[in-house]
Each structure stands twice: as structure tokens, then as C-alpha cells.
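Study the following:
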Amino acid sequence: MNINWFPGHMKKTKELVKKNLKLVDVVFELLDARIPLSSKNPDIDVLVGNKPRIVVLNKQDLSSDEANKQWIKYYEKKGIKAVLVDAAKGKGTEKIISITKDMIKNKMERLKEKGIKNKPIRAMIVGVPNVGKSTLINSLAGSKSAKTGNRPGVTKGKQWIKLRGNLELLDTPGILWPKFEDEKVGLNLAFTGAIKDEIIDVETLALRLVEKLQEIAPLPLKERYSVEVEDRKPIDVLDDIALKRGCIIKGGEIDYTRVARLILDEFRNGKIGSITLEYPDNI
């Protein structure tokens, strides 16, 4: 898979995140609950350092309940606060706010002792592209994120978004590109739509997804499309799905582009099932 994530952009963004960290009290690390490993940029651990951090596992509705529980336990063992969220429906966002307040409680109390009251808690969201940053911001803000304008002591041009619970979010890109240490990372990002289909062969991608689902979720695949999936070649399963769904072009040939997009769309929308592609025991 030949995917170019523009290292120059990544370097610039890393510098931006590092520069602005001193302005915030807490960092929200946004991951896709279906692929917490692949949707993580390993540089974030180094960049964030000792700054209070909450791992936000978005799209929990599209991942399996059992896997979600395993990931929460995994982060607990590492001493990292993690929250399961469905940002599109606003589910879990109140927990982000309550945990944030608890994490920053001592700092806010010290400020009160100095006579500084009702100071907003300031946050930054970091993550890889297309895992739901805008949706999460709107959910936390309770509206289409209205900027609050420049604030005293902040570099000119910095914009803060008012969130619920006396929180403010620094409106910077906060986006880092993933590192492709192996092909699995690229494939998982592509399966979930984090990598735009325009730069990847969708027919091959759908074939690889069918192969993956045959391995980890054969029953949901079988039930969704009423096809046999066990002990069969992925291309044969793909052909059967095409025939079942009428993805045929003139002359009776299979329309591979159409069936590929159908399978990818239905997987990403959860129509095949709530499926997690990575578990903690994969580490």
C-alpha cells in the first residue's frame, strides 16, 4: 500500500502541538475504538509527557462491547484514564467533562486560594485525521462550536472554543499523522475510512476486508449477506455478495467497484455488525 502522509506536514503539526501544550491543562487523545492501536500516533506519548491526558475512544457504537471493556481495562492497568464515546450521538461526553474536572481539581483549588475563581479548564484534542474530532468538539460544545475569540495572555490568533462544564478548547489542528510501521496499520485505517478511498484501490481494499472479516467475524458477514464464508477464498465470497446484491454490469459481469463500495460503506456504518479490528492482546 503506497500511502503518503506528508512528513513535512507532520513535522509542522508536531511543533504546533508542542508549542501550545503549555497553554492547556489537559489533553484529549482521540482514537477510533475499533482500531485503538492503528489510530494512535506513537509520538503523542512523548509530546504530551506528564501533562494530564484522557484517551477518548470514539465510535464505541461501531466496536464490540467485549472489546470496549477490554480496552478500558488495558488503559486502567497503564494508569491512563479512558472514556468510551459515541460523539455523533453525544454519548460519553459528560464523562469526559467529569473526569477532566476531577483530574484538574487540585490545580483549580490552588488557583482559588490565590483568589482566582471560575477560571476555565483549557484543553487540546490530539489525534490522527478523520477519527471524529469535529464531531466530538460539537458534542462537547453542545452546539456548532462557536469561537470565543482571543483571550488575554494568549498569542494573537489563538482561538478558544467554549465547551460545556466551564471548559475551553484550544482551536488548533491538533492532528498528527500515523506512522505506518506495518501494512496492518494502513489497512485498518483504510477499512474504517480514516484514509480517503480516493488514494486507495477500493476493490483490493474490500477484498482484504472480506478476508479480515472471515478471520475475526465470520458470522456477522455470513448473516448480513446470506453467503457462505468459511473455508472459502475471499474473492469467491466477494463474488457471492455481488450476486446477492445485484452488483452486476452489462453482460452479466460483476461490478467490483460497486460491490467494494457497498461492503466498505456497510462495514463503516456498522451494518455488518459492531466489529473491533484490534484487541489489547494484539500488542
